[in-house]
């Protein structure tokens, strides 16, 4: 989903405006640093368009260094959001902090909408007009607290909101790949290697270049659509909230993709951050290739360690395709293509109901489900309800233990080969 970031100094009414956009009245998010993710990002919808609203209120610093902190907040939004809404308290007018933010935002290639907040009456509208001085175009008068003008503001936001890659799977055209992984794992290096051009990193903060969101890259003689490479080619300096924004982008890239290449730095221990990205991939149900990068730095000792880490940390995805590469030297990067193909074949695979049930009968005859409360649940029938990823439904007469479900999934994988793809097995109990 496209991202709308709400920026502005403390107490101008950002959180109230967010609640207004979400169309609800519940308590405002506290302005404390380190608030959890779900409290700062929300799914919103207006006139039939869905988008994510990010309330940057959570990252506000104390008064010390306010200018700088807010300028950073704005830069971060410029590098990562699709629309920025700058909220100013019109009853106070443009403060020097507002001016500092506006200076940053005037360079923005990301559209900026100026919200003149706390305009509670017609009479107060003149105060909004004074904010033309910020050089960000027309100020939109709103009263976040009372709702006045909120519709017009939202209409304006939608006008400048880009239509992003649709999540809807498309069977024709190039396959869609999300290149994901923690910062500094080598995503942009790999992208450069694959696209064959060693482009220098775009300094987004200076607003020099407009990158297309996605890129077509030819691999193995075919074009592949790499999702949101603009986000990868940009270098966002470390700032509070950076990681949060990055995970938001990762999620939307995954949602737009069919297959993920998860980059892991093979030269370093696998970290929490790697596992968080992995969790996002699992949640979105994408096919998966894990590329262990920086293989040029891996010696025998490290290799041994890594094997142990993989057993321990990546046990959730024994089915993932794996390749060992070096984005720097180019080692084995061509192996990504067969790995992607295998993963996508599995992801798209459909097993006919006849084959599936023949197999099921045999497995169950040899290994009947364990008794539950003295009764033997019967597995009557299975069907593949969906592909992308393959999703199966088992109809039973009783609850199946998790262990037995895992057993069936394992056997299903062995029989039909879903390498590189998650498989979902749902159980429907019929009375
Ligand atoms: P990103 O944040 O994931 O896009 O990571 P970058 O592509 O910017 O890479 C981070 C750092 O790791 C840079 O200094 C790269 O030169 C370095 N790097 C990336 N891939 C490799 C690799 O395969 N081997 C080595 N030795 N260094 C690498």
From TrEMBL:
<dbReference type="InterPro" id="IPR016484">
    <property type="entry name" value="GTPase_Der"/>
</dbReference>
<keyword id="KW-0547">Nucleotide-binding</keyword>
<feature type="binding site">
    <location>
        <begin position="293"/>
        <end position="296"/>
    </location>
    <ligand>
        <name>GTP 2</name>
    </ligand>
</feature>
<feature type="binding site">
    <location>
        <begin position="181"/>
        <end position="188"/>
    </location>
    <ligand>
        <name>GTP 2</name>
    </ligand>
</feature>
<dbReference type="InterPro" id="IPR032859">
    <property type="entry name" value="KH_dom-like"/>
</dbReference>
<comment type="function">
    <text>GTPase that plays an essential role in the late steps of ribosome biogenesis.</text>
</comment>
<dbReference type="InterPro" id="IPR003593">
    <property type="entry name" value="AAA+_ATPase"/>
</dbReference>
<dbReference type="GO" id="GO:0005525">
    <property type="term" value="F:GTP binding"/>
</dbReference>
<dbReference type="Pfam" id="PF14714">
    <property type="entry name" value="KH_dom-like"/>
</dbReference>
<dbReference type="Pfam" id="PF01926">
    <property type="entry name" value="MMR_HSR1"/>
</dbReference>
<dbReference type="InterPro" id="IPR031166">
    <property type="entry name" value="G_ENGA"/>
</dbReference>
<dbReference type="GO" id="GO:0042254">
    <property type="term" value="P:ribosome biogenesis"/>
</dbReference>
<dbReference type="GO" id="GO:0043022">
    <property type="term" value="F:ribosome binding"/>
</dbReference>
<dbReference type="InterPro" id="IPR005225">
    <property type="entry name" value="Small_GTP-bd"/>
</dbReference>
<feature type="binding site">
    <location>
        <begin position="8"/>
        <end position="15"/>
    </location>
    <ligand>
        <name>GTP 1</name>
    </ligand>
</feature>
<feature type="binding site">
    <location>
        <begin position="228"/>
        <end position="232"/>
    </location>
    <ligand>
        <name>GTP 2</name>
    </ligand>
</feature>
<keyword id="KW-0677">Repeat</keyword>
<keyword id="KW-0342">GTP-binding</keyword>
<feature type="binding site">
    <location>
        <begin position="117"/>
        <end position="120"/>
    </location>
    <ligand>
        <name>GTP 1</name>
    </ligand>
</feature>
<protein>
    <recommendedName>
        <fullName>GTPase Der</fullName>
    </recommendedName>
</protein>
<feature type="domain" description="EngA-type G">
    <location>
        <begin position="175"/>
        <end position="348"/>
    </location>
</feature>
<dbReference type="InterPro" id="IPR027417">
    <property type="entry name" value="P-loop_NTPase"/>
</dbReference>
<keyword id="KW-0690">Ribosome biogenesis</keyword>
<feature type="domain" description="EngA-type G">
    <location>
        <begin position="2"/>
        <end position="165"/>
    </location>
</feature>
<dbReference type="InterPro" id="IPR006073">
    <property type="entry name" value="GTP-bd"/>
</dbReference>
<dbReference type="InterPro" id="IPR015946">
    <property type="entry name" value="KH_dom-like_a/b"/>
</dbReference>
<feature type="binding site">
    <location>
        <begin position="55"/>
        <end position="59"/>
    </location>
    <ligand>
        <name>GTP 1</name>
    </ligand>
</feature>
<comment type="subunit">
    <text>Associates with the 50S ribosomal subunit.</text>
</comment>
<comment type="similarity">
    <text>Belongs to the TRAFAC class TrmE-Era-EngA-EngB-Septin-like GTPase superfamily. EngA (Der) GTPase family.</text>
</comment>
């Amino acid at each position: 989903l496209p991202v709308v970031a709400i920026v502005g100094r403390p107490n101008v009414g950002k959180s109230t405006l967010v609640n207004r956009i979400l169309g609800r009245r519940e308590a405002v998010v506290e302005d404390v640093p380190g608030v959890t993710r779900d409290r700062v990002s929300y799914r919103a919808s207006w006139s039939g368009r869905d988008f994510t609203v990010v309330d940057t209120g959570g990252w506000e610093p104390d008064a010390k260094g306010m200018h700088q902190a807010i300028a950073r907040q704005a830069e971060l939004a410029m590098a990562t959001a699709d629309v920025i809404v700058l909220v100013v308290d019109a009853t106070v007018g443009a403060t020097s902090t507002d001016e500092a933010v506006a200076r940053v935002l005037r360079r923005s290639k990301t559209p900026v909408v100026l919200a003149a907040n706390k305009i509670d009456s017609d009479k107060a509208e003149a105060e909004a007009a004074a904010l033309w001085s910020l050089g960000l175009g027309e100020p939109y008068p709103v009263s976040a607290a009372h709702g006045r003008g909120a519709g017009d503001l939202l209409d304006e936001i939608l006008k400048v909101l880009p239509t992003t890659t649709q999540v809807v799977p498309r069977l024709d055209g190039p396959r869609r790949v999300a290149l994901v992984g923690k910062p500094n794992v080598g995503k942009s290096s790999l992208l450069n290697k694959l696209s064959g051009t060693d482009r220098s990193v775009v300094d987004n903060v200076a607003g020099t270049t407009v990158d297309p969101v996605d890129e077509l890259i030819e691999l193995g003689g075919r074009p592949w659509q790499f999702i949101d490479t603009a986000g990868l080619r940009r270098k966002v300096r470390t700032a509070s909230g950076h990681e949060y924004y990055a995970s938001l982008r990762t999620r939307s890239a995954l949602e737009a993709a069919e297959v993920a290449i998860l980059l892991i730095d093979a030269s370093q221990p696998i970290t929490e951050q790697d596992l968080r990205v992995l969790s996002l991939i699992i949640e979105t149900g994408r096919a998966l290739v894990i590329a262990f990068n920086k293989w040029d730095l891996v010696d025998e000792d490290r290799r041994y360690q890594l094997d142990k880490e993989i057993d321990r940390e990546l046990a959730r995805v024994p089915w993932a395709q794996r390749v060992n590469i070096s984005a720097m030297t180019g080692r084995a990067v061509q192996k990504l293509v067969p790995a992607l193909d295998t993963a996508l074949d599995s992801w798209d695979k459909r097993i006919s109901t006849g084959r599936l049930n023949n197999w099921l009968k045999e497995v169950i005859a040899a290994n009947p489900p364990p008794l539950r409360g003295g009764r033997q649940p019967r597995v009557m029938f299975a069907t593949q309800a969906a592909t992308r990823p393959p999703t199966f439904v088992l109809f039973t007469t009783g609850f199946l233990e998790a262990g037995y479900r895992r057993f069936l999934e394992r056997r299903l994988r062995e029989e039909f080969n879903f390498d590189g793809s998650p498989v979902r097995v749902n159980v429907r109990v019929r009375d």
